[in-house]
Amino acid sequence: MRRNGIAAAGIALLLFSTTAVLADGSGDPKATSSDAGEYRDAQGNPTFNIEKDGTVDWYTGVGYLRYTANCMQCHGPDGLGSTWAPALVDSLKTLSYSQVLDTVTNGKKNVNAAQELVMPSFGTNPNVMCYIDAIYVYLRARSDGAVGRGRPQKIAPKPPGYAAQEDACMGS
């Protein structure tokens, strides 16, 4: 969980775009490094790690909970979209981590003659920003088909130092 991260709701804003983004999305999700239980891919983006027995890393598990608490209202269960907002599992196929962070942090507005799509800014909301990496990791795992619908059944233990980092971000 990094403070420089953005809200899951911001991720939704990225999905509101009606034009296709010419990016390779989240890229190869293979974890190449880990620091205190948070996995990174070869480009340094947050990613998931799933053990052979199906145990997901802590961030994927927390990401599911935080997505459900902060993003599901608009983007639907499991990131599948709704009448209000696009499916984030589809959006992450074309959006990069930095694009997702920008959208969640700053919001997005897409207006045309038929509709007005607005993603609010979550840049000052600690309930989103303190968990943006976890939310992104969960949605990345969903988008890549590595995690199914619903809460992951097996979640790795909380990494040492996680609680202190969370408290610091939340202002405790």
UniProtKB/TrEMBL annotation:
Residues 1-23 form the signal peptide. This is C-type cytochrome, methanol metabolism-related. Residues 65-139 form the Cytochrome c domain. The lineage of its organism: Bacteria, Pseudomonadati, Pseudomonadota, Alphaproteobacteria, Hyphomicrobiales. SUPFAM superfamilies: Cytochrome c (SSF46626). Keywords: Heme, Iron, Metal-binding, Signal. The keyword Cell inner membrane does not apply. It comes from Segnochrobactrum spirostomi. GO terms for molecular function: electron transfer activity; heme binding; metal ion binding. InterPro entries: C-typ_cyt_methanol_metab-rel, Cyt_c-like_dom, Cyt_c-like_dom_sf. It comes from the Bacteria.
